[in-house]
Every structure is written in C-alpha cells, then in structure tokens.
What we know:
Blueprint: E1 3-9, H1 16-24, E2 31-38, H2 44-54, E3 58-63, H3 72-82, E4 92-96, E5 100-101, H4 106-116, E6 120-131, E7 134-137, E8 150-154, H5 155-160, H6 170-180, E9 184-195, H7 207-217, H8 222-235, H9 239-251, H10 260-279
Parallel strand pairs: 1-2, 1-4, 2-3, 6-9
Antiparallel strand pairs: 4-8, 5-9, 6-7
Helix pairs in contact: 7-9, 8-9
Amino acid sequence: MKFLIIIPTHNEEQHVLACLESLKNQTFQDFECVVVNDGSTDKTPQIVEQFVIQNSKFKVLNLEKSEHQPGAKVVRTFNKGLETQNLEEFDVVCKFDADIIFPENYLEKVNEAYQQNPKAGMVSGLVFIEKNGEWAFENLSSQNHVRGPIKSYRKELFQKMNGLRPVLGWDNIDVMLCKMHGYETITLKDVWVKHLRPTAYKYKSQKAKKLGEYFYNIGLSFPLAIISSGKSSFKNKSVSEFFITMKSYLGQKQPSILTPKEIAFIRQLRWKEMFNKFMK
C-alpha cells in the first residue's frame, strides 16, 4: 500500500526536523509526504525547505498565514496539501502533526493493520508525552480513539466520508462517519509515538462555549445536547457551564457541514452509546 502523509505546520522550528527525520527513517518506505507551512514566522520554512532538498519523498507547500479557527484551521491547511496530490495514486491518507516523533516501524505496523483487516478504516498507534523524565500515555481520550495528531485513513473510507470537515470536532466526526460506512477504527496498543508539545486545552476559559459549538457541529439534537451538556457540567461540578454550553449550542447559526443522512446516523449512534452505558 502507498501512503500519502500531509503535515500541517505553523511555527514548529523546535520540533519539525525531528518529526521529518523519524519519517525518513521508517522501515516502510512506500510513502510521499507534503509539509504544509501555514505562514510560519519562525525558522520552520527554512528548516523544512533544507530537509526537502535532501529528501525526495518530501515536499513543502508554503501558504500565507490563515485565520485562526479552532479545528477548522488545521483541516483547511491539510486540505491545501491534499489538493497538490492525485489521491488515486495512494491507498492510505495520513494527517500527522509536526511535533510527533514516530518509531521507525510505525508506518510498517499501520500498513500491516490495513493489509490484515479489510474493514480497517482508520488506524493509529498511541500518543505518549514526557512526564518527570518518563514517557506516559497522553490520557485525553480512550486508548481506542484514533487521535488527531496521528490520523490515518483507508483511501476508500476517506473518499466515502468526503474527507475531513473543517470545523471544531472534525476528529470525532471522522470516527462516527467511519462507523457509518461500515469500517472499524484500530489503535495499535504496542506502537507509541512521542508527542513533543502535549495537547493542552488552549481555550480553557471558553471551554463551555466551545463545547456548545462542538455539539452543534457533530449534529446533536436538542435533547442530546441537553443530556451531553448536563453530563459535562455534572462532571465538572459547574452549573454555569451547562447554561453557557446550551446558550452556545442554540446560538450557532452556520449551516451544518453534515448531510441529513450523516446527522441521522450520528444521533442514532449517540443514543445507542448512551443506552449501552446506562445498561452496564
């Protein structure tokens, strides 16, 4: 199988070279990589351009800095890189972050997963971060979740779900659409990547507001939004969070980026997941 790797990057002069070197040294070499520089103001462009000169598998696309939009920005940058390639020449599409160091067998193991399981639609390893001099699982989600910094997609699934959606929540929408099209998500528990710049929630002061936007973007109905907002506010012991989240959800006016069929599936899936948790 042939891999297309696209790496959106902005001001990653401290990490991007280590990321690219780890990909250059992969045991699996049937890939091409496009680094999309989104208007970096540090030395990222020079570092990447020098690397590309010496490594023919890698290309760079330099863009003017795009407008900052949580979720949307990285997908739009990714899509710019995608537009430079003929997708029909590839079997797997990868969206990687520029602050990741991959073990040398990473692509080999991902390739094996796709080869061995025809229903594998999305595959990744696990993301680890450094804590007190040791590497530990970055516990932001379940170990069964294919994380945003190391996404890979079987091309057929990627095309069926019409690529990535440039909205906050894109990296959960793709998981649900993967299920909708009859594919499975797979995380390789024994394959770790190192995340050099851990994902902190950058919008902590706006968390509840962003959560409402997220619930709207993934197509939740009003009752589902009520329940999901209530669960989050109860977990965080904050009544005000509930009202901020719902106000944000109800205030969203932009057209949905999902089709009616996709929205119907996602709502049914969420109800099913809630029922299964309740029955346990």
